[in-house]
Amino acid sequence: MKQHYDVVIVGGAVIGSAVAYYLTANPDFTGSVLVIEKDPTYVKASTSLSSSSIRTQFSNPINVKISQYGSEVIRNFGEMMEVDGDKPDLNFHSGGYLFLANTPEQVQILKDNHDAQISCGADVVLWNRDELADAFPHLRVDDIELASYGRSGEGWFNNTGLMYGFRNKARAQGADFVTDEVVEITRDGARVTSVTLASGAVIGAGTVVNASGPRAAKTARMAGLDIPVEPRKRTLFVFDCAKTPEGSAAVNQGRLPLMIDPTGVFCRPEGKFFLTGCPPVDDPAVDWDDFDPRYDEFEEIIWPALAERSQSFEAIKVVNQWAGHYAFNTLDHNLVVGAHPEVGNFIFANGFSGHGLQQGPATGRGVSELIIYGGFRTLDLGEVGFERIVAGRPFLERAVI
Question: Cellular component terms, GO, for this chain's entry (predicted)?
Fold first, then answer.
């Protein structure tokens, strides 16, 4: 580890590692990169504990395009991240997403969202009740007025595989990774100049990237800055079915999608089991070290909704559960990517609110462009920059789950 780096990245999970990869992959960048991660096991990282899915079904075109690029990277990941002949396989399951609507408001949202998705070239269709029943005969659909189904470019994949692929390739391309923790950031007026580590080391920095997930606000405060991001707990459950409906679909070779019920409960296949979760009734900020699952959500919210939706889900049994953290943006539940307007060499890559894995590739590329060129070159992420945080102007996205 050197005493000064052109770019210091605080946080080494999927976002930090993606930034390091795109910087070191660009021949126009000739600087040095240091990634600081306090827990190299990543056992409590949002990356490791997520449901690791990707979708194009958003309401805002920029979010659709971000995921379209993410899907492209996932498809080509082995070739992009090859190191010494090893091509990582993300085991992508192209099951798609299925949104169900049973109220006039939900129906209108799906229609409006669909217009935005189609304008970006997303492969999404709207189905009426009969079309839905034909495609997925295990579902009870008497109450459903409209469904939105992603036929391609959506699914789920190996979450830590994505992170380690970026990390390993970035290291092979010259990025340094260190196990330590940033405890202080020194600022000289409108610029940050160095970071101090728990080990006592002081590292000079040309640019600092905040990629510290749910701890984003803590990192920002060290530089005298604020960002409205806090840890919110999400519990996931894996359950077994007495009689699985997987294989019963009339589309996609019988594979079931990730279904989002009108109640907000979601469910998707997970090997021979199913993975499920729901938005919590109460959603307070939690301590950074609070990972106790909310066990009652399954019996009180999830199982009743699933049993109502399908006879196949009447007889199910939980076989595993865990809780992870959303890096929750309290302003608008969307990513914040960009430099601080007054401290130009402090860059935010935060607030993904549960979408960090699928938005990691576009974020890593975008941040690298800001650092190398001073602006976005491929996908313009200006709409999700920090300026809206300062102005208190939410970036509206109606398809947040």
Answer: cytoplasm
| Domain boundaries defined on the chain | 4-84+158-228+331-391, 97-155+231-329
Q: pTM, whole model, 2 decimals? A: 0.97
Binned average pLDDT, 10 residues per bin, the chain of 401 residues: 97 98 98 96 91 95 97 97 97 97 96 96 98 98 98 96 98 98 98 98 98 98 98 98 97 97 97 96 95 97 98 98 96 96 98 95 98 97 96 83 61
Print burial letters for 374-399: b (CB count within 10 Å at least 16), e (below 16).
eebeebebeebbbebbeeeeebebeb
- Judge if 4-84+158-228+331-391 and 97-155+231-329 fold alike in CATH terms: no
Q: What is the 3 state secondary structure string of 242-308?
A: CCCCCCCCCCHHHCCCEEECCCCCEEEEECCEEEEECCCCCCCECCCCCCCCCCHHHHHHHHHHHHH
The Cα angle at residue 174 between residues 170 and 177, in degrees rounded to 5: 65
Bridge partners of 322, per DSSP, are: 236
Q: Which CATH class is domain 4-84+158-228+331-391?
A: alpha beta
C-alpha–C-alpha distance, residues 41 and 236, integer Å: 20
Q: Which long-range contacts (CB under 8 A, 24 or more apart) does 85-89 make?
A: 88/161, 88/164, 88/165, 88/168, 89/158, 89/161
Order of all β-strands in the sheet with 124-127: 124-127, 146-150, 97-101, 258-260, 266-270, 273-277, 229-241, 316-329
Place of tokens 């001073």: 374
